[in-house]
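FAQ

Q: What does a record look like?
A: Structure on top, sequence underneath. For example:
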């Protein structure tokens, strides 16, 4: 173009032409546009997928531990040998698809941001796999959403587990005792709980021997594993708002 029409301001012409198409003008390229924007997108997707993968795995574990149950779907087979099973298949499917997507996204982000000299067009082959990576993302999102729609909390299992692990209130106990000026608060709770099973009655025996005001003793007796949630409910309400 410049050889045929040297008097034309081709830099301005191309800038205006590209922007009029609603595109961002990139003045310096090889034969292909740089793929930094794609790499940024793929890395962002991979980061989001990692959060959802964590949710998939946690949900699977909660179901395995029976903290969560699943509503049975008519016609669905949970196991080829155990007809009663309701497997967390949606979370497993989501985990598999998001893991495959992340593997592809890492490859794409790494490959597309490198170029051999200035005439490497191998990216045209690689870019044909972008759709597959995004498809695995979409399938993973859909399966995760479907799995979440089936789960139901098993409150009794949660309560039984909490009641069976009263040592979780040890953190609250030693914090209250520190507030009351007990310098060895941590050591007292550690001596009671470390490496051994305890009951809520063991804690109450400890409270009875403490040199604290009666109102503090009553405050400590009110502590329960199920009730020791801090401000968690307020934090959840804030997110909902």
């Amino acid at each position: 173009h410049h050889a045929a029409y040297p008097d034309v301001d081709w830099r301005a012409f191309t800038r205006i032409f590209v922007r009029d198409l609603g595109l961002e003008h990139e003045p310096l390229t090889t034969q292909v546009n740089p793929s930094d924007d794609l790499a940024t997108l793929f890395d962002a997707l991979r980061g989001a997928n990692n959060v959802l993968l964590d949710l998939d795995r946690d949900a699977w574990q909660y179901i395995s531990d029976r903290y969560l149950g699943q509503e049975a779907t008519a016609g669905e087979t949970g196991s080829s040998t155990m007809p009663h099973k309701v497997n967390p298949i949606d979370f497993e499917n989501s985990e598999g698809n998001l893991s495959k997507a992340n593997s592809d996204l890492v490859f794409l982000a790494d490959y597309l941001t490198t170029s051999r000299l200035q005439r490497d067009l191998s990216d045209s082959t690689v870019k044909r796999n972008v759709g597959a990576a995004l498809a695995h993302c979409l399938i993973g999102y859909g399966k995760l959403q479907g799995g979440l729609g089936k789960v139901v909390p098993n409150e009794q299992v949660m309560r039984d587990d909490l009641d069976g692990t009263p040592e979780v209130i040890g953190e609250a106990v030693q914090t209250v005792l520190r507030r009351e000026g007990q310098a060895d608060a941590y050591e007292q709770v550690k001596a009671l709980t470390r490496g051994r099973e305890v009951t809520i009655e063991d804690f109450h025996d400890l409270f009875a021997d403490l040199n604290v005001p009666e109102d503090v003793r009553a405050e400590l007796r009110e502590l329960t594993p199920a009730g020791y949630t801090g401000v968690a409910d307020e934090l959840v309400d804030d997110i909902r708002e």
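Q: Is there anything notable about this one?
A: Residues 141 and 184 are 50 Å apart (CA to CA).
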